[in-house]
Amino acid sequence: MKLLRVKASHFKNCCDGFTIDLTSKSKKTAEDKEYELQEIAPDLHAFNTAAFIGKNASGKTTAIELLDCAYSILGEFRLEGKHYSYDGAQLELTFYHDGFLYLYETALSSGKTMGNQAVFRDERLCRKEYFKTNVKEIFDREGYEEMQDLGDLPEDTSKVFFILKKKQTRAVFFDSFSGGSDTYQTLFRALKNYDIGMDVLAKVIRIFDENIQELARVDDHNYRVVTGGEERIMSDTQLIYFLSSGTTKGILLYTLMAASLKEGFDLLIDEVENHFHKTLVENMISLYKDKSVNRNNATLIFTTHYCEVLDLMGRQDNIWICNANSHIHLTNMYEDFNIRPVLLKSKQYYNNAFRTAVNYEDLMALKKVLKK
Amino acid sequence: MKRLIMCEGSNELAVVNILLENDALIFTEDDLLGLTPYHARQIKNNTQVQAALSMYFGNDVLVMRIGDKQTDRLVIQADFKEKICETVKYCTLPELEMLLIISEGLVKEYEKVKSSVRPKVFAKEHIRCNQKKYDNSSQFYRDYYGSDCGKLIQATITSSLQSPRILLP
């Protein structure tokens, strides 16, 4: 299963018809096919990496939350525990699965439980067989046939269940708030669930803190740490002070990355620069682009203010610029801007080519007040 | 020293990967920048090569370019100039398909038409693997040589008699 496109209306503060298309649109060179794209069906290419950029409060987090929402439906067939209201949101998901394209439409409303569960209403599930000759028409409604008489489900369970059947991680969302003391529980759960070896954890820890020789779980809240040949048992709260929250976040994120690359699920990261050094971000991007590592078509999707990272992305159609006035709008670097590929994207960003610059007058207004 | 292998085409990359997987070269994956060969004509156009060079802080990178053109000059950006100590070119002239023609024992037959037919065209007409005609795809090289690297090494040795710049153990 691969998510190809999400279209939303009335989702948080998004404009109507807010669309994120994860399939290639511009020309595909042989090198692009090697590094930038993954072929999920003959001639149908999705991105290995994708990014959302924009100034503060431009809607980057909302865009990635929309994707998280879509992946929750496709992975767990339900939506719950999100921090926003679903009331009135309308979603249209297009995904590819086993030779068919599926178009799923639903309206959402908030359920009456405490866990903020979504109720699915007015669901429609359509499909058409994928043929490479029709690759340009994958989003055309023509040819999609509605799937009737699928059966009944509880109102908090999506009809996508009838297609995908088995709950499976389709993506993991790493938001800006991750990194508390429960991180270690999540970390060891991820190692177990995704069958990631302790050798991988050791290599990850080495990147973030070379003094740590071993980190092992004793029980749900206690861990064994070996540093400089000395062994200590620490609670999760003690451990987070000992290792620092940055290191803790980094270890978890890199472990989730290893799981994503192994299992082929997508990894969504909000504000990738919040978590670690630029080289480590560059390394992540390069791992997703390396087919000898990314063997199962995982995609790395992130938001960033680190526009230098964009220079490592060889294409433009996998980069969206977020803008907010009364509503959040997305523009695509390839479709909506005329940027010559030879120019560095970071330089264009700083030259305000995407209208993302911080307002100079606002900065000076603050300075003026501070001078008083 | 780290070797940066830049293959001009995906077929050259497939051949190098088969040789690496079978430990048939004088170096291993561990000696390669980024632990992998790259499909890249130029550094400036390939973000994956740029990322590999950015992450490496030594100044002993040997760039090994593999392709069928001898004229294409490698442009090295100022940021990476100090990291690269040497650049060498391994030419697959006239075309990589000569390996397949050698392996099929069709060299004499090809010699008769070589003034008018390119090796690629000749291979498409005469070479098959598992009932599939040669289609200029890297998968064909995988299918053809993947399970028999000895055949690839033999073809490379034969080819190296004409072109001395072939790496062998």
Q: Write the element-wise H/E pattern of chain A from the N-terminal end onward.
A: EEHEEEHEEEEHEHHEEEHHEHEHEEHHH
- Strand arrangement across the biggest beta sheet of chain A: 2-1-6-7-8-9
Number of domains of chain B: 2
What CATH calls the topology of the largest domain in chain A is: Rossmann fold
Tally of contiguous helical segments of chain A? 12
Task: Give a verbal description of the structure.
The complex is a heterodimer of chains A (372) and B (169). Chain A is an alpha+beta fold. Chain A has helices at residues 30-35, 60-76, 161-164, 183-193, 198-208, 236-243, 245-263, 278-288, 307-310, 333-336, 345-350, 360-371; strands spanning 2-9, 18-21, 37-41, 44-47, 49-53, 90-97, 100-110, 118-129, 145-146, 171-174, 212-219, 222-227, 230-235, 266-269, 300-304, 319-324, 328-332. Chain A has 2 domains: 2-170 and 265-371, Rossmann fold, CATH 3.40.50; 178-263, no CATH class. The N and C termini of chain A lie far apart (60 Å). The model of chain A has no long low-confidence stretch (mean pLDDT 91). By secondary structure, chain B is an alpha/beta fold. Chain B contains 8 helices and 6 strands; from the N terminus they run βαβαβαβαααββαα. In chain B, strand 5 (128-129) and strand 6 (132-133) form a beta hairpin. In chain B, helix 1 (10-21) packs parallel to helix 7 (138-145). The relative contact order of chain B is 0.17. The interface between A and B is medium-sized, with 17 and 17 residues.
